[in-house]
Write a structure and sequence with these properties.
Elements: E1 2-4, E2 9-11, E3 16-17, E4 23-26, H1 28-31, E5 36-40, E6 47-56, E7 61-66, E8 88-93, E9 103-120, E10 126-135, E11 147-150, E12 155-160, E13 166-169, E14 175-179, H2 180-191, E15 199-201, E16 204-206, E17 209-213, E18 223-228, H3 233-237, E19 244-248, E20 251-252, H4 256-263, E21 271-277, E22 283-289, E23 291-293
Length: about 300
């Protein structure tokens, strides 16, 4: 369960326990925006607080650490397993966020190497998720981060589902899963602390704005500010709804995706130079210390 304190909401998902001391793999969108995380291990029934080790938005994966966990039952990713169209599969998860024993949704593989666009309504950014396994199993919100297993019980993928605030565009009413090979590669990179252009390690730097595509709100290209969180770095800087962020440290910000990517290279406490055009059309620039923001 992720508590998204800034929105006053909660989100539920599923995770795969990779190590007996509580390293858990899940979808990034499950933890995205979380100000606190809790998890219940179905093996022992215990509830744990958790923190984010790192995440990869471009593959919708995140690694979290359960606090004080030991002796947990684990699952292995069957990354070398051949997956073919027609294979029988079962998606395990927490359908609808109801908790308890894992829900099961049976089906078969209908396509491989699929691409969808996933939009994060909170940040205004979108990601192209590619290489996905498509199935006709009914994967629901809450199943996200759970295992997709084949007829032999091997984990061949990580379920991913649209949910409130995280929507798929032009996706058929079928389920998708991230292949185990990709999931394992990303999990290993995060666990090793190997940051990259897609992998973020540690706490999330935070400006404190909700943004949208500028041409929907303004004639200026950039990330249009539609909300400023009170007492955030953006608020203290004086940003207002209607302003358009145009650069970070001199790098152009043509859209919300770019703003997310540029801020994702930083950590709380970093100072950046922000450029923006105010609602009166005047160019502004100032240095701002980034805060410690919600996960993902």
């Amino acid at each position: 369960m992720s508590e998204q304190g800034l929105q006053g909401t909660e989100a539920a998902g599923t995770g795969i326990v990779l190590t007996s001391d509580g390293m858990v793999l899940t979808n990034n969108h499950v933890i995205n925006g979380a100000t606190s995380l809790t998890a219940v291990d179905i093996g022992n029934g215990h509830s744990y607080g958790a923190s984010v080790i790192g995440y990869d938005r471009s593959h919708d994966l995140a690694l979290v650490q359960l606090h004080g966990a030991s002796g947990l039952q684990t699952l292995s990713l069957a990354s070398g397993t051949q997956v073919s169209v027609g294979d029988a599969v079962t998606a395990l998860g927490n359908a609808g966020g109801r908790g308890g024993q894992p829900s099961q949704a049976a089906g078969s593989v209908t396509a491989l190497d699929q691409r969808i666009t996933a939009t994060d309504e909170g940040s205004g950014s979108s990601e192209q998720l590619s290489g996905l396994i498509q199935v006709d199993a009914q994967i629901e919100a809450g199943d996200s981060g759970g295992p997709l297993v084949n007829a032999q019980g091997q984990v061949i993928g990580i379920d991913t589902a649209a949910s409130v605030g995280y929507q798929f565009q032009s996706a058929p009413t079928e389920g998708f899963a991230i292949p185990a090979t990709q999931a394992e590669s990303t999990a290993e990179a995060i666990a090793a602390g190997h940051a990259s252009s897609t992998v973020h390690i540690g706490a999330t730097a935070w400006l404190g704005v909700g943004v949208g595509t500028a041409n929907q709100y303004s004639s200026t290209n950039g990330a249009a500010v539609v909300q400023v969180v009170p007492n955030s770095p953006a608020d203290r800087l004086g940003l207002l709804a209607g302003d358009v962020i145009t650069s970070v440290d001199g790098a152009s910000v043509p859209d919300p995706n770019t703003l997310t990517a540029l801020l994702g290279q930083h950590h709380p406490g970093d100072t950046v130079t922000l450029g923006w055009t105010d609602s009166g059309g005047q160019a502004q620039s100032a240095r701002v210390v980034l805060g410690n923001g919600p996960a993902g």
